[in-house]
Amino acid sequence: MAKRLTAETKYRRMLAWLRREFPLTYPVSVRRVSLKHDCGTCGFQSRPWPIFKIEIARNQCAALQRDSLLHEWAHARTWHWAKTLQDDHSPVWGIAYARLYRRFLVWDYGRGTKKM
């Protein structure tokens, strides 16, 4: 019988997997913080050096943190295509998010037992 993974182990494995399988154009800082009105945020800082900043609401359940991380990672993957903030959830972003989510379902925290 396989060992049951903790929520923290799953989160850390998922972040390492995203960094490895879906690298970004710039370095990324991912933190879990207190957010009052959002499940997660993604921003870009160009100075003093370019970096993506992803923040995930720590007061959410593990499943919502997971989905928020995938959502925000998709924003970072498509950032250079967005012309305005209104483009945040464009078709390009939707495709990137769907690809991330489908690959995540197959990967299954490294257990890889699910088939699509």
How does the major sheet shape up? Answer: 3 strands, mixed
Indicate how many domains the architecture comprises. Answer: 1
The strand count comes to 3
**Proportion in helices:** 40-55%
Radius of gyration: 15 Å
Order of helices and strands: HEEEHH
Unreliable spans are none
User: Ends: how far apart?
Assistant: 23 Å
Overall 3D form: globular
Structural class: alpha+beta
Q: How big a fraction of the residues is strand?
A: 15-25%
Number of helices: 3
The mean pLDDT is 88
**Order of strands in the sheet with most strands:** 1-3-2
Give a written overview of the molecule.
The chain is of the alpha+beta class. It has one domain (7-108). 42% of the residues lie in helices and 16% in strands. It has three helices and three strands; from the N terminus they run αβββαα. The protein has helices spanning 7-21, 62-78, 91-107; strands at 28-33, 40-45, 51-57. It has a three-stranded mixed sheet with strand order 1-3-2, with helices on one face. Strand 2 and strand 3 (51-57) form a beta hairpin. Helix 1 (7-21) runs parallel beside helix 2 and helix 2 (62-78) packs across helix 3 (91-107). It is globular and about 45 Å long. The model has no long low-confidence stretch (mean pLDDT 88).
Topology overview:
Layout: H1 7-21, E1 28-33, E2 40-45, E3 51-57, H2 62-78, H3 91-107
Parallel strand pairs: 1-3
Antiparallel strand pairs: 2-3
Which keywords apply here?
116 residues; alpha+beta; 3-stranded mixed β-sheet; 3 helices
